[in-house]
Amino acid sequence: MDAEQIVMLREVLSATGWLERTQDFGRALRVTSRTPGGLLLVGTPGGDPWHLAAHLDDESRLGDAPGLAPTLVRWSPPPDAPPHLSVGLSRLEEARRGETLFVVAEDEAPVPLLERVDDARRVGATILALDGGDRELEGLAHEALTVPAGEALLSFDGAQHLVSAAAGQEPARGARGLRHRLARLLEAVTGPTVD
Fold this sequence. Notes:
- By secondary structure, this protein is α/β, with parallel strands linked by helices.
- The chain has helices at 3-13, 18-32, 50-62, 90-93, 111-122, 135-140, 156-168, 176-190; strands at residues 39-42, 71-73, 100-105, 126-131, 143-146.
- It has a five-stranded parallel beta sheet, sandwiched between helices.
- Helix 2 crosses helix 7 and helix 3 (50-62) packs parallel to helix 7.
């Protein structure tokens, strides 16, 4: 999904409440994810949220928010995977206070994941969940955004795009927020301005 598609999606959703919910969740993600390497992103055995990880990594870079660069935690990383794709579930057992565990589960989270989430919460990690209606997962989360399977206006994938875009937005500081972000994006694409 490109920037133009996100703008169109926002226009369609402007009167539904979804924009506010995804923005609130994105802000919570940005506020809790301040430690570089401390954002642990995990999905279910059927789906690693690699696409969301890529978007959050971009938002981290473009929004000057190093804490948003996620550590993608995978259920079964291949033995020959590069280091950034080889982090297994054992990383969740090392979660600690100051870190954020972001669970992305369109389907119900399996019991082994719920147990690890509960353990991480007990040691002080902040738990965020983007889910499809999993009450057990929502009960463990400090913040949860639920996109029900039958939702007609917003897909689970669309919610991930809106959340990552919202997480990348700087807190409003007058006119500086959006303009500063666009200037950084232009500089990243075209190179620095020489006077």
